[in-house]
Amino acid sequence: xxxxxxxxxxxxxxxxxxxxxxxxxxxxxxxxxxxxxxxxxxxxxxxxxxxxxxxxxxxxxxxxxxxxxxxxxxxxxxxxxxxxxxxxxxxxxxxxxxxxxxxxxxxxxxxxxxxxxxxxxxxxxxxxxxxxxxxxxxxxxxxxxxxxxxxxxxxxxxxxxxxxxxxxxxxxxxxxxx
Length: 178
What we know:
By secondary structure, the chain is mainly alpha-helical.
């Protein structure tokens, strides 16, 4: 919808994009500190995934109770662990840049479930590592490789979206005239 010569269309475009960004920021402010229902949804999805791969897990609200060999461990899924910041960064990045069409922006929103499932995999992988090695290794994975994994996952989703919509910046060959 970005049209350089149409001032009214440009103002409407800015108003729509700003409104959507403000909605995301308002949710971050108003939803603080619980950000419901995202932690519960993530907990439920992780419990389902972990039970599917053979790790007995029960979800209770934002908590996961995992039956480790000989002991039960409780994991709390905070709003950060649920990917809230990642979702917000992705949506803001998509709606901040002015030259994308609304069709392309809607395609970007289809990547939110992919980011969600990537985060489910990250959490489950951390618990799986803890299940097979130790709780300390689970914490280590969460604090290091898990964080890197999910940020790389979101960046990859963003780049794939740019490629699919043909919005990926391309280098133009510059011919220097002497």
